Every structure is written in structure tokens, then in C-alpha cells.
Amino acid sequence: MASDLRENLEVVPLRHPGRWISGAVILLIIVGLGWAMAEAEIQWEDVPGFFTHPVMLEGLLNTIVLAVAAQGGAIVLGVVIALMRLSANPVARWFAVGYIWLFRGLPVLLQILIWFNLALVFKNISIPMLFTVPTNVVMTAFVAALLGLGLNESAYMAEIVRAGLSSVDSGQTEAAKSIGMTPMTTLRRVVLPQAMRVIIPPTGNNFINMIKGTSMASVIAFLELIHAANNISSRNLEIMETLFAAAAWYLVMVSLASIGQHYLERAYGPR
Amino acid sequence: MALVEAVGVRKSFGHTEVLRGIDLEVDRGEVVCLLGPSGAGKSTFLRCVNHLETIDAGRIWVDGVPVGFRSHGGKLYELREREAAHQRRDVGMVFQRFNLFPHRTALENVMEGPVQVLRRDRAEVRAEAVTLLERVGLAEKAGSYPAQLSGGQQQRVAIARALAMKPKLMLFDEPTSALDPELVGEVLDVMTSLARDGMTMIVVTHEIGFARSVADRVVFLVDGAVVESGTPADVLDNPQQPRTQQFLAKVL
Ligand SMILES: Nc1ncnc2c1ncn2[C@@H]1O[C@H](COP(=O)(O)OP(=O)(O)OP(=O)(O)O)[C@@H](O)[C@H]1O
Ligand SMILES: [Mg+2]
Prior knowledge:
Chain A is mostly helical. Chain A contains twelve helices and two strands. Chain A has helices at 2-6, 17-39, 47-51, 54-85, 90-105, 108-116, 135-138, 141-167, 170-178, 183-213, 225-236, 239-267, and strands at 124-127, 131-134. Chain A is flat and about 85 Å long. In chain B, helix 3 (106-117) runs parallel beside helix 5 (151-163) and helix 5 packs parallel to helix 6 (181-196).
């Protein structure tokens, strides 16, 4: 019996008809969408021109500057708030909790609008005996967007950094102390580099969100990509064409950010 | 004067008193082994000597300096963390779980203290670190990351890292307890040669053989108090206290 079974029996590989069918369906959908796009009343030949239109490029530059500045500021602030959150000082801890509660709790759009309209309630911004400036001079669209986006993001960054710092084994801090490291050196040389592995992936995701989030600054007429697209289309009425050009720029920026994130993760990856 | 003088050291965590008035002197070049059952407070005492824990009462002096304090004008001022860090330079510590910096190579681990804390010249430090790695038998592992080393090798790097600070005193907290049995010997060998070279050492260990052959003195700690202390021959072979006898009966 057993020897029968071992003789040259034909092998029938497992077939996957389901894969062929689902694959065909997906291809069909894609072809359909492509056909619809080709049939749509879009002047495709105009899109490249809008893509490199001077106004669009200015919007692109402003978008990049705003996203990078807001994210950079948020990272610095986030580290500070995270350290306060973990500090032995109860006042600092409670401040950090309240800060995160407030700036994470309100919609970014609302925060941008509040900053932009600050002059309605505070005529001047002043630190007694140091300086006084009129609010509407300082609170440009850029500054309002920077504050709205950056402060909201800093609350998220604080939580990300806190998770990162907490992920590092306490034995690491003890070993650092035992060779005489000060708290600052311990943070810089031992804890933060190890926390990076936990901090970088969500920060990368947040930065990608930040790039897209800058579009909210269009409501206060900051010349970012969407506002630039609107400016162009208000003259020629090619609304979809200019929006597609802006969309292409977002995808370019997000792709570049993803590649950067990949390399950062590798640099701080496990040894 | 003794290098380490501990007088009436008390320490509580919450309501439990873990150290109940410990007196201990360690002379220069002396090797003292701390033995005792789990939870006796051995680790806590070592951590107090290095000011990783603050003590509630009593005083510890290392080389005449009160640990965790600065004496000035007849008063003792509690140190801030920065100043405490400065004091810890003189005391090396080796942990049960090695605690090497995983993002740095063996050589970088050894160089970290002298370069970052003592701000010494890199090239000079590198040469010394290489010598130290040779001394613990790991010259060829200089470029390896901790994850690429065995437990015994990691612990020897950790010893080299502590020695790089040129400490007056070395504290070992069960340095071989986390090791596979066949790796214990290589670490004890390094510690033995260190003792032979005249290093002052306080060693918490369950390795009775090591205590017998290397220690100048063995101290038994039970429930946060010293119950017996003396030469290995006296304490290990002829214990006087019932608690010591019980403990040794189990370990030997
Ligand atoms: N940070 C802490 N918080 C609260 N209790 C602690 C802390 N550290 C130690 N203890 C308690 O203090 C007692 C002594 O602990 P310690 O680690 O010093 O004992 P040990 O003699 O080193 O024991 P072992 O041989 O198991 O390492 C134990 O009961 C422990 O639970
Ligand atoms: Mg212990």
C-alpha cells in the first residue's frame, strides 16, 4: 500500500482561480477610470503649464516653508513639553497635560482662524517693559498659519516624544549615570538616540499630514498651493486643471517625504 | 582612612525599610563580597554608594567625600543632579543586565565616558579603550555592537566601560547572574585579575567560589542589616549566625 503511494504520481499544483478573477476585475476598473479621465472635459495639455506656472511655484515654495517651519517648531516644542510631562515638577507636569489637552483638542482650522483674528481682541502684543507691537502687524497670514499648524502639531509631537523616551530601558539611564553623565548628556547621547526608533515613524506620518494640512491656510488667503491654484483659475476658469496641477505637487512632496522617512528609519534602525 | 565608610545607612521604599542601619568599611585595595538572600537590600546598598538612590539616614563617604553632599562651612549641602554626576565619575558600576549602550560599538561604549564626561582627547581615549578591551580579552570585538556579543562578552565590555573612567572603586551587582553557566568563568576571571591589580571592589554575588578565592572579606546581609562579616574562611566555613548557616546550607 504505502509503496504504491510513493510511485510516480502526477503532482497537481494548487490553482488560484480567485486571484485571476479579482486581478481581472481590478484591471478592468483601472482601465475604466482611465477611459473616463480621457473622455472627461479636461484640457490635459494645459496642466503642465499650470504645474510650472510662476504663481503655482510661489505657492509651492510657501507650502514647503510653512510645513517645514511648523513641523520643525513642533518637534522642538514637543521635546520640551514631553520633558515637562515626564519631569519631577508637578507644576510642569500639569502644564504639559493642559497644553496637550488644549492644542490637540481644537480643530486646526479653528486655531488658524483664532490666531489670524487675534487683533480683534488684542490690539497690541507686548511684554511689559520689553516691547509692544500692534497685533495686526505681527499676525500675518503666514504667522497665523504657522502658529495654528505648529502648536497643534507640537501637542502630538509631545506625545510621540514621550512614548519614545519612555520606551528606553531605565537601565540605560542608570548606566549613563554610573559613568558620570549629567542629565543633559544622558538625554543627548543615550536616551534620545534610542528613542528615535520609536519617534521617527509617527513623526514622518505627521509631517506628511502637515504638508497637506498647510492647505488650510488658504482660508486666510495665505498663498500656498491651493490658494495659488485658485488665483490662477480665477483668471482662466480652468478650475480642475489647476487643481490637478496642485495635486501633482502634493504627491511629489509626499513621495519625497516618504523616501526621506525611509532613510531616516534606516539610519536609526536596530543594529 | 578607609576608602568607603558607611555609617548607619537607612533607606525605605514607601513604608518598607529596606536598609536598617548598615555600617561597612572598605579599605583601599580591599575586595568585599556582599552575600545574602533575595530582597536583603544588597542592590539597594550598592546603588546608595553610587548615589543612584538617596539615603534616608546615616552617611556614606567615598574617599572622604560624603556621597550626595558637598560639605561647606560646617554644613552638608545636598547635591543637584549635575554635581552628583561629577561625584559618580570616581565610582564604576557593573550591572546584572550589562546595560551597554546598544547603539554604539564595544569600543564606542568604552570611549563614551572619557570623551563625553571627562572631555578628553579622542585619539588618546581610543588608544586606552583598545588597551582596556585587550585586557578583558575582547580586542577583536571592538567594532561589534552589543547585540552581536554573547552575554559574557557584553559584561566584559561593561567592565571595560567602567574602568575607562579610572574609578577608585568598582561596584558589581550580581555581574554573572544573567549569564549562561559556561560564560560565568570568563567574567569572574576578569574580576579576579582586577582584584589582583589592587582595585577596591564591592561585589554582590551568589558565586561562593569567587568569594572564597578572591574576597578579603565577606559580609552577610539579611533584611537590610549586616548579620555577619569576616574573612571568607571564617564566614563561609565556620558561620556563627543561624541565618548565615541557613543561607549557606542552601547555596553550597
Ligand atoms: N525602587 C524600588 N521601589 C520599591 N521597592 C524597592 C525598590 N527597589 C528595591 N525595592 C525593594 O527593596 C527590597 C530590597 O531590594 P534589593 O534589590 O536591594 O534586594 P537584593 O538583596 O539585591 O535582592 P536580589 O538578590 O533579589 O537582587 C526588596 O524587597 C525590593 O522589593
Ligand atoms: Mg539585587
